[in-house]
Design goal:
Blueprint (H helix, E strand, L loop, with lengths): L11 H20 L6 H18 L6 H8 L8 H15 L9 H11 L16 E4 L2 E5 L6 H15 L5 H15 L6 H16 L8 H7 L1 H14 L3 H28 L2 H8 L9 H8 L4 H14 L3 E3 L12 E3 L1
Antiparallel strand pairs: 1-2, 3-4
Length: 330
């Protein structure tokens, strides 16, 4: 391994969280399979985007963020609306990320900050401080040092990924990235996106777990952990904080999936059972498969509830009453 090594200590608390998180991820993957629930995946992605932007003072509500993503007109600041569109575009291309590539980091910063940041997709050329509201937490390293600091960080990650657990590696990166503050804007959003990308390379389910919502809920503690690490000169406290939040969001996710399973009606379950993925069906064809006579009852009990949960989509969403309308299982 190279000369650079971010300072941190692996404590018993960290090891305990790593064990707990690994066990919970195993249970979710084995029994609930979040990846097979498109409506929950989309809802959690929207929560991730809303929370990550809210931390950076974007004032749009969760409902407004959802409307922007769904292509609806929203009354709000153009910059804030663009931030939502950018974040959604970045998260939608999440699977393309190589979290160990600086080139990808810059490319996704360009997506995340398109039209809203002058130095989009490139490291900052000016000096920056990190603020919590009006309070300056610390001054970032000089801009001239950023390229080498980032090169050192990514070199360490590439070499450490076989010896440092991804849960620890992701948290160390998150803190070190915020410390270096490599971009003129969007550092918090990128740190959280990249942290998730590192975890998703370990367990793909992390792509749909809204860790950002826990950070937003405990934002003061988040900034406090960062500040304490600046004072200590090591990221140990931040690692413990992040692992505690990941551990708790997995509890929330388990409850979310369990409640979703309980709420899924017998009718919707039957409808999904007669449909194949990616095959378009007419209402008539689905009613025949279900041996139903009442179109109104079919729509009320089967079709509409399934579409509300994003389990089924229309092939012509702009013309819901089109005679050529078909329905596809997502």
């Amino acid at each position: 391994m190279g000369d650079y090594k971010p300072p941190f200590t692996i404590t018993n608390e960290i090891l305990s969280y790593v064990s707990s998180i690994s066990e919970k991820i195993g249970c979710i993957t084995a029994t609930n399979n979040l990846e097979a629930k498109p409506h929950l995946r989309k809802n959690n992605r929207i929560r991730s985007i809303h929370s990550s932007l809210k931390i950076e003072a974007n004032s749009l509500s969760l409902g407004q963020v959802r409307d922007v993503i769904n292509g609806k007109t929203v009354l709000g600041g153009q910059k804030e609306i663009q931030e939502v569109k950018n974040a959604y575009a970045a998260y939608e291309r999440f699977s393309e990320i190589d979290p160990y590539s600086i080139k990808d980091l810059k490319r996704f910063h360009g997506i995340m900050t398109k039209y809203v940041v002058e130095e989009s997709g490139d490291f900052r050329r000016g000096e920056e401080g990190v603020f919590n509201g009006d309070q300056c937490i610390f001054m970032a390293p000089p801009a001239r040092l950023v390229p080498q600091l980032m090169e050192d960080l990514f070199t360490w990650m590439k070499e450490a990924r076989n010896s440092v657990h991804p849960l620890i590696l992701g948290s160390v990166f998150h803190y070190e990235f915020l410390f270096i503050h490599p971009f003129s804007d969007g550092n918090g959003r990128m740190a959280r996106l990249w942290h998730t990308a590192i975890l998703a390379k370990w367990k793909s389910i992390f792509a749909y777990i809204p860790i950002e919502s826990r950070i937003e809920k405990f934002q003061e503690e988040y900034y406090d952990a960062i500040a304490r690490c600046h004072g200590d000169g090591a990221s140990t406290i931040f690692i413990e904080f992040m692992l505690s939040q990941i551990d708790k969001i997995l509890d929330d996710t388990s409850v979310q999936i369990r409640e979703d399973q309980e709420q899924l009606s017998e009718y919707v379950t039957k409808l999904l059972g007669v449909m194949e993925y990616d095959i378009p069906y007419t209402c008539k064809a689905l009613m025949e498969k279900l041996e139903l006579k009442s179109r109104e009852g079919f729509r009320r009990n089967y079709l509409c509830p399934a579409m509300e949960r994003n389990l089924i989509r229309m092939t012509i969403p702009d013309k819901p009453n089109s005679r050529n309308q078909r329905y596809v299982k997502t």
